[in-house]
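Researcher: Quick test of sequence recovery. Tokens follow.
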């Protein structure tokens, strides 16, 4: 099968008739794919809260008796709210039923109308009859009758043998059962390769990565768990290992640590090995399916509005953009991706607005990727190296804000509107070990500002300041600028009442602190 199905338990099967679900369950088992099965739609038998993750869901359309396609669709939507968590990510629904032709179209329509955080990436309709066949035990009864006749043959005439055969066959219990059809695996593979792999190849990109993470976690567990031999004493023996792994992080502070703190820090130690294993893509490279392709010279961004198709076709190598409306180039030719001059020749205002919004979205992608890579939203009051929070100035204190901004721009260069869009931030840069071991006498704070891209301001001196790539903060694209010369030390009391709004991830945080270190150790040059 070119299409890679999830192997980490993200498959769900719902069918109120277990005998009709058995073929697909056997098929998943045959492929070595773990799954969760629900045979009832009663709330008491469904999970108390949505599952952690769903990537593939087989749903019998008529889980609940329904008199119309609308009612049938509503019952399925209700079930999905019990099973699929919000912000689940991409998943495929397979409508698995004898009624796919009757109700499938309306069910698919309502599924595609779900909010973004619950909407399936694709709905695939499969007929149960294609994957199962009816198996009768008629042959078993025929064999039984033949054995009986053979045993009594010396005592009965041929006419009596025939009468006995008829009595047995008339009273035999013939049980028709559903079984996995021949070539069921091939039929499922064909369905996914034709209908999913070609239309939804990027879905496999994420399945491959999740598979790598799952494999990496197994490798990390195997690597650490064998530090003691598996026997009846393994659990108690291994607590010594957990203690030692925690001590790597806590050092002498482990003497005062709680059991919970010991476990948390031991898990952090394993995490470092796990991250290395995730980064090793050796195994995943061999499994990239041929159907997953990315053309470097033709990237397409599509949007449907009222049944009209708008397309922005990008050629990054030539820095060109082509606009299409319902398959026709409008206007003719291409234009630079960095400006919207070509949009001026789109005569319809509504078309121009839609194309303009699409180009804005494309230009924000880089900033959104940076945000995903380097920023974690973590609104709590716990001290973290890399934690950031907004600085609250007094209400309407424009004067105070202007004074602070003079650290970055000595001349007062901002209009009132620009001033309101710039926000003041602080970054916690105390070493991780000092926080973990509670040995910080003072905590170190690096002040900074967030400047939206629309203002377009950057500091002139690159030595005393650090400018980040563009991020998306509070819906605005912009960058942080940190002032190394404003570094300060504070007491723990300083953090009371504060809540972290974001946390910078390791790579960008290390880059900032290493740049600060170089600035502190920078040598001047003496000359005449």
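Model:
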């Amino acid at each position: 099968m070119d299409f890679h199905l999830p192997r980490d338990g993200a498959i769900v099967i719902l069918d109120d008739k277990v005998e009709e679900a058995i073929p697909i369950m056997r098929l998943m088992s045959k492929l070595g794919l773990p799954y969760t099965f629900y045979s009832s739609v009663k709330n008491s038998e469904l999970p108390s809260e949505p599952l952690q993750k769903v990537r593939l869901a087989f749903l019998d359309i008529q889980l609940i008796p329904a008199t119309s396609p609308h009612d049938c669709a509503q019952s399925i939507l209700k079930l999905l709210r019990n099973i699929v968590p919000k912000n689940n990510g991409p998943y495929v629904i397979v409508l698995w039923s004898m009624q796919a032709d009757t109700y499938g179209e309306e069910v698919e329509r309502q599924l595609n109308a779900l909010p973004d955080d619950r909407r399936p990436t694709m709905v695939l309709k499969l007929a149960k009859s294609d994957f199962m066949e009816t198996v009768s035990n008629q042959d078993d009864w025929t064999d039984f009758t033949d054995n009986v006749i053979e045993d009594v043959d010396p005592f009965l005439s041929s006419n009596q043998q025939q009468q006995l055969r008829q009595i047995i066959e008339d009273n035999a219990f013939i049980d028709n059962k559903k079984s996995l059809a021949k070539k069921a695996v091939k039929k499922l593979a064909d369905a996914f390769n034709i209908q999913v792999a070609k239309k939804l190849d990027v879905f496999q990109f994420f399945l491959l990565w999740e598979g790598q993470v799952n494999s990496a976690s197994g490798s990390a567990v195997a690597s650490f768990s064998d530090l003691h031999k598996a026997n009846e004493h393994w659990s108690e023996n291994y607590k010594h290992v957990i203690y030692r792994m925690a001590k790597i992080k806590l050092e002498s502070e482990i003497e005062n640590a709680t059991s919970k703190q010991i476990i948390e820090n031991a898990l952090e130690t394993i995490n470092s090995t796990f991250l290395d294993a995730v980064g090793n893509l050796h195994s995943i490279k061999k499994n990239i399916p041929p159907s997953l392709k990315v053309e470097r010279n033709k990237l397409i961004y599509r949007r449907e509005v009222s049944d009209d198709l708008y397309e922005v076709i990008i050629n990054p190598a030539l820095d060109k953009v082509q606009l299409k409306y319902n398959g026709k180039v409008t206007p003719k030719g291409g234009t630079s991706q960095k400006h919207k001059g070509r949009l001026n020749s789109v005569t319809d205002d509504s078309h121009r607005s839609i194309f303009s919004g699409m180009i804005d979205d494309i230009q924000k992608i880089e900033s959104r990727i940076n945000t995903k890579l380097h920023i974690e939203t973590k609104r709590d009051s716990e001290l973290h190296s890399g934690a950031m929070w907004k600085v609250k100035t007094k209400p309407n204190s424009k004067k105070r804000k202007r004074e602070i901004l003079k650290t970055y721009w000595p001349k007062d260069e901002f209009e009132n509107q620009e001033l309101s869009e710039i926000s003041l931030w602080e970054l916690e840069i105390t070493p991780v070990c000092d926080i973990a071991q509670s040995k910080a006498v003072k905590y170190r704070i690096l002040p900074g500002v967030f400047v939206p891209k629309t203002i377009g301001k950057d500091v002139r001196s690159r030595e005393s300041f650090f400018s980040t790539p563009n991020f998306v903060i509070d819906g605005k694209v912009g960058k942080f600028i940190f002032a190394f010369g404003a570094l300060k030390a504070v007491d723990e009391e300083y953090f009371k009442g504060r809540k972290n709004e974001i946390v910078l991830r390791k790579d960008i945080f290390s880059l900032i602190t290493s740049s600060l270190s170089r600035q502190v150790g920078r040598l001047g040059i003496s000359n005449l």
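The mean pLDDT is 80.
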